[in-house]
């Protein structure tokens, strides 16, 4: 085996040499930038970075900030609801399209179209739709339901759900396409066997199809989770963090700390906590996809 290692080392040598600039760039930009951010999160950097270390002061200030705590609470609510509803709506739509319905391509394009829009455009559109003066509430009241109230963006208690509506409208189409690709990968013989055995369709989906789509679900979780942690544009476009600070999210907290308050140390500390939350998602996914595969092999 050892005699084959030099041969393997020089296999596809041109491709490996061509990849060196990309690997070096990734190490310098991403890894280097991450390490630099973490190191300077322990300093009292203000307008410009400065290496005057203050220990955990920035993190203590961060977790004593009501604005940050509200951001974390909003992210938790937004994240859990996004995952649940994206999966349910996306899978149901994919299952319906998988029935070989007429105009499938048209419906697929309609459902996926919002994902092609920028988050700013989506946020502005839903800001208009949820405006009580000329949006959904106004239209319904003009039809005779005078007591109808639907103004989530102006209610501090439910404003995060107004942002959630826009996020689901934009992102569910992508989840649908991932699920549809997974469903199309299921062997047709499995469906035939289930029908012959008299297994109801919902049991076939629940106990046979969904377990077989595990890689698709894991990929969808990672994509959705990374978008949840980075959510910023929708909040800025719809509410700018209001009413008050009711719809603040961590990404906006980082921006405000670094560019409005000119407190780089506080922004770096918040960025590091966001990085930690991403690692909590990515590391288990990497283990399930690669580590688990090796252990079974």
Automatic annotation (TrEMBL):
GO cellular component terms given for this protein: plasma membrane
Record Pfam families: BPD_transp_1
InterPro entries: ABC_transporter_permease (IPR051393), MetI-like (IPR000515), MetI-like_sf (IPR035906)
Location of this chain's protein in the cell: Cell membrane
Domain ABC transmembrane type-1: 72-287
Main subcellular location of this protein, as a coarse class: membrane
GO biological process: transmembrane transport
UniProt keyword annotations, A-Z: Cell membrane, Membrane, Transmembrane, Transmembrane helix, Transport
Disulfide bond is among the record's keywords: no
Residue stretches spanning the membrane: 20-42, 75-97, 109-129, 158-183, 204-229, 268-288
Protein topology in the membrane: Multi-pass membrane protein
Family: Belongs to the binding-protein-dependent transport system permease family.
Protein name: Sugar ABC transporter permease
Natural source organism: Flavimaribacter sediminis
